[in-house]
Write a structure and sequence with these properties.
Layout (H helix, E strand, L loop, with lengths): L1 H4 L4 H4 L1 H22 L6 H13 L1 H15 L8 H33 L4 H5 L2 H41 L20 H28 L5 H17 L1 H15 L8 E3 L4 E7 L3 E5 L5 E5 L7 E2 L5 E9 L5 H16 L8 E7 L4 E2 L4 E9 L4 H19 L23 H22 L9
Antiparallel strand pairs: 1-2, 1-5, 2-3, 3-4, 6-9, 7-9, 8-9
């Protein structure tokens, strides 16, 4: 199952070549010892023990993997969120256990070769350097374990939240059209926290290692402060972007996976960095927007959305009958076992709101979960069309009346007159379409 799908570790994949190299090295050392006729006490025991330990590494790794997998196996009937979180925790714990195992194996090998680090550290400058080097390696191992522990905690929380919200544990679901699904707040904030913590651990580890070798780190800290102040004055735009991003995230204005409009560009939030974010337009364009350039944020994926569209009905249609039909259809869709759960409020008619030359405008609307409104709109339009066909209700055709002025009905229209009439009608239709989209009429621009 899941174990078979995991990639083969590097040690297992390349172990034949590594084992041949170890055997060749072992043989070379034996030849050198035989040629020099000098055999230190316990040399062959130490060599054989070291070779056995190194050759047993793949088996020890398999045993370690089995122990960690058993510790985080959990109940396979548990919730998807818990299973996904356990998998994230298992991977991180295995990496930590491997680092601890390597450190332990190193000390065992040093013990086999009778190397006493304390006594070595007391002998001269070279020995002290060796002791400092071992201390630096221990500091690096502790720093790595701390970083891995933070990574495990962050990945576990992100996995639990994403699966709880119904998001795919590997890839965010992509909504159709203009409107993504609800995003995960922890999935937006915790990656930034992880990066910040990783940088802090790296800086502290480097400074501690330098101090281990006797380097005075106070001038480095003072110099870094001066350089940071100079960069802050010289990169005011960068500081503006970072500060603006912090406040946007504190206000929870957007999350990864949500569809937003920032005025000059809109799209689904794919990635958030320290100074900018990337928005994927529903037509595929990827835009990078610095936080400092954002004036306002319109979020289309938070809590709920209302989908509204007009129906054009001819004069003489019984609008009360249409209202009752739409209401009944809304209840049927609400009770639908497949799509009913996506409606937060049923489909309803708002009555006649506008009278045009050739039609009455009857808007209908419904409330849905973010990201589902486009699929539901197609479903609703299809069902309304089928219902009107069944009940004998037709939609109004768009008509444009053009007054010809002094031209009498008996006059024959030439090509220029027909072109002028068609242009007037096209202009009217164009302005009406722009008005529906919220744009200005052509003569106002």
């Amino acid at each position: 199952g899941a174990a078979a799908d995991r990639p083969e570790p590097f040690l297992h994949r390349n172990w034949p070549a590594i084992a041949l190299g170890l055997v060749a090295l072992h043989w070379l050392v034996i030849e050198i010892v035989v040629a020099t006729s000098y055999v230190p006490e316990g040399l062959f025991v130490a060599m054989v023990t070291t070779l056995v330990l190194l050759m047993a590494l793949p088996f020890l790794d398999e045993a370690l993997d089995a122990v960690v997998a058993e510790a985080f196996a959990g109940d396979q009937t548990a919730s998807p969120a818990l299973r996904a979180a356990n998998e994230q925790t298992r991977r991180g714990t295995l990496r930590i256990a491997r680092v601890l195992g390597v450190v332990l194996l190193l000390f065992v090998i040093l013990g086999v070769w009778r190397v006493d680090l304390v006594s070595v550290a007391e002998r001269g400058i070279g020995a002290r350097f060796s002791a400092d080097l071992v201390g630096a390696l221990v500091i690096a191992a502790v720093a790595y374990i701390a970083w891995e522990a933070i990574r495990v905690l962050v990945d576990r929380q992100i996995a639990m939240e994403r699966v709880t919200l119904g998001l795919d544990t590997e890839n965010e679901s992509v909504g159709e059209g203009e409107g993504g699904g609800a995003g995960a707040r922890l999935g937006t904030l915790l990656p930034l926290v992880r990066v910040s913590a990783s940088v802090a651990i790296l800086v502290v580890a480097v400074l501690t290692i330098l101090g281990q070798f006797g380097v005075n780190v106070l001038p480095l800290l003072a110099g870094a402060g001066v350089v940071g102040l100079a960069i802050g004055f010289g990169a005011q735009t960068l500081v503006k972007d970072i500060v603006a991003g912090i406040f946007f995230l504190i206000d929870d204005a957007f999350r990864i996976g949500e569809y937003i409009d920032v005025g000059h560009v809109k799209g689904t939030v794919e990635r958030i960095s320290v100074r900018s974010m990337q928005l994927r337009h529903h037509r595929g364009v990827l835009n990078t927007v610095p936080f400092g350039d954002i004036g306002h944020v319109a979020n289309f994926s938070r809590d709920w959305v209302i989908m509204k569209f007009p129906l054009r009905l001819p004069y003489g249609t019984d609008t009360e009958r249409v209202r009752k039909m739409i209401k009944k259809l809304g209840q049927e869709l609400l009770d639908d076992p497949e799509f009913g759960g996506q409606f937060l409020q049923p489909l309803k008619s708002q009555g006649v709101v506008q009278m045009e030359d050739s039609a009455m405008i009857v808007p209908v609307k419904f409330m849905a979960r973010p990201g589902e409104q486009w699929m539901l709109r197609r479903l609703v339009l299809t069902r309304i069309h089928e219902l009107f066909e069944e009940k004998g209700i037709r939609f109004a055709n768009r008509e444009v009346t053009v007054r010809l002025g002094d031209i009498r009905q008996t006059d024959v229209l030439d090509a220029a007159d027909r072109e002028a009439i068609a242009g007037a009608a096209a202009r009217l239709l164009h302005d009406e379409a722009n008005e529906l989209r919220g744009a200005q009429p052509a003569d106002a621009r």
